[in-house]
Write a structure and sequence with these properties.
Layout (H helix, E strand, L loop, with lengths): L1 H25 L4 H10 L14 E5 L8 E5 L2 E5 L7 H10 L4 E6 L5 H4 L2 H7 L1 E6 L12 H12 L11 E5 L2 E6 L14 E6 L2 E5 L5 H9 L8 E3 L11 H7 L3 E4 L11 H9 L3 E4 H4 L2 E5 L4 E5 L2
Parallel strand pairs: 3-4, 4-5, 9-10, 10-11, 11-12
Antiparallel strand pairs: 1-2, 1-13, 2-3, 6-7, 7-8, 8-9, 13-14
Helix pairs in contact: 3-5, 5-6
Length: 305
């Protein structure tokens, strides 16, 4: 009798399993289809909230490094890929979000903590355009990470594109203005591509690792930099996020991609500047991946933990 009851109890589970196997067999094996199947089966992820809004910015938790995913209108842009040892995590996040192709990949500048994971992304995903800053020969890095990206581009027969200062791109209905103000750059940080992203009445400023010299050159252009979200430059280093920039941007949120290590970032002086400006500070070392959602009117923040 007990055996009969056990067999009876197992049957619904077997039916569900059989249905899932059938569905899997009928759906093409792509990141997008697996994402939809996961939601169908109730395998929810905190980032699924981005499916219900037209624009989202994901600041990935990748340690003291940068990797940001922008989604709008069925298109995706990846800005930086973290360090090489976190590249697979970035790729997994993209697949979790259902992407197997990216309209744009942008490398803000080729420091190892920004370019490191991009070679793997270029190898594993279809990429429409790869953007990076044009650098003088004296600043071109001789690093394994830089060479790996060059090789990945060559294998795909892709040429890097060097955007002009002030050039506009479109991701769905979002407009992205790329800035690389002219400064006498003595390091890669001050050669960062800066992205100003606007989606209807909301906006986001992504500063790469720009330091005070590039901030001053950006401000000198007298462009509208007002933004709801500021991706803080250089992981909260003292050389970035000056008072003048904060006055021009007047953000509601400041996102800092950072980890607890010997660098002791973000610096207390930067946090005090942000606090004095009335900005809500969001940190990946505290909250995990940061998810900013826009309906075109206002921005909502969700965090992984």
């Amino acid at each position: 009798m007990h055996g009969d009851l056990q067999k009876t109890a197992l049957r619904p589970g077997l039916v569900v399993l059989a249905v899932l196997v059938l569905v899997c067999a009928c759906i093409p094996a792509s990141a997008g289809s697996w994402h939809r199947l996961g939601k169908l089966c109730g395998l929810n992820d905190f980032s699924d909230a981005a499916d219900d809004v037209p624009f989202s910015l994901h600041v990935l938790e990748v340690g003291k490094a940068d990797s940001l995913l922008l989604e709008c209108g069925g298109e995706a842009m990846l800005v930086d890929g973290g360090t090489a040892d976190r590249g697979e995590e970035v790729a997994r996040y993209l697949r979790r979000r259902g992407w197997d192709s990216l309209r744009y990949v942008v490398n803000s500048h080729p420091d190892a903590d920004h370019i490191g994971g991009l070679a793997g992304v270029l190898e594993d995903f279809s990429v429409g355009t790869y953007f990076c800053p044009r650098l003088p020969d004296s600043l071109l890095p001789d690093t394994e990470e830089f060479r790996a990206v060059k090789n990945a581009l060559a294998q795909k027969k892709m040429e890097p594109v060097y955007p002009a200062d002030g050039q506009s791109l479109f991701l769905g209905e979002a407009e992205i203005t790329v800035f690389q103000p002219q400064v006498e750059a003595k390091n890669l940080n001050n050669s960062s591509l800066i992205l100003y992203v606007s989606y209807k009445n909301t906006s986001f400023l992504l500063m790469g690792d720009a330091e005070s010299e590039e901030e001053e050159a950006l401000l000198a252009q007298n462009c509208n930099l007002r933004a709801d979200v500021l991706k803080v430059g250089h992981h909260g280093s003292e050389t970035s996020t000056g008072k003048e920039l904060l006055n021009a941007v007047s953000p509601r949120y400041a996102a800092i991609s950072v980890t607890n290590d010997r660098n002791n970032l973000p610096r207390v002086k930067v946090l005090r500047r942000l606090q004095a400006a009335g900005v809500e500070v969001c940190r990946t070392d505290v909250s995990g991946t940061l998810l900013f959602l826009s309906d075109g009117k206002e921005v909502q923040l969700l965090t992984e933990r």
